[in-house]
Write a structure and sequence with these properties.
By secondary structure, this protein is mainly α. The chain contains four helices and no strands. It has helices spanning 2-19, 23-33, 39-46, 50-77.
């Protein structure tokens, strides 16, 4: 059950990162990762050469990694609120 929770949290993190990318980067990444297309087939779908698509994919992956690092850094800086417990008198 914990694996499911971790998977959902990771999916939410990736979805948040994808939303922050330019549309072309999202399309490039999703054609390969979500649709499961080979890069040469994804290039046809994107309307560009296989070489151009490979460059787009490389850059989109780098930008996604940078956004994920930014999200992780932000989450580490958020202070965790202290839990106040009432002590019986």
């Amino acid at each position: 059950m914990a694996d499911v929770a971790v998977g959902l949290a990771e999916g939410g993190r990736v979805a948040a990162a994808l939303r922050r990318l330019p549309e072309r980067d999202r399309e490039t990444l999703l054609l390969v990762a979500w649709e499961g297309l080979e890069p040469r087939d994804a290039a046809v779908a994107a309307g560009c050469s296989a070489k151009a698509f490979s460059v787009r994919l490389h850059r989109a992956r780098r930008r996604l990694a940078a956004v994920l690092e930014e999200i992780d850094a932000t989450e580490r800086r958020v202070p965790v609120p202290a839990v106040r417990r009432s002590v019986p008198s």
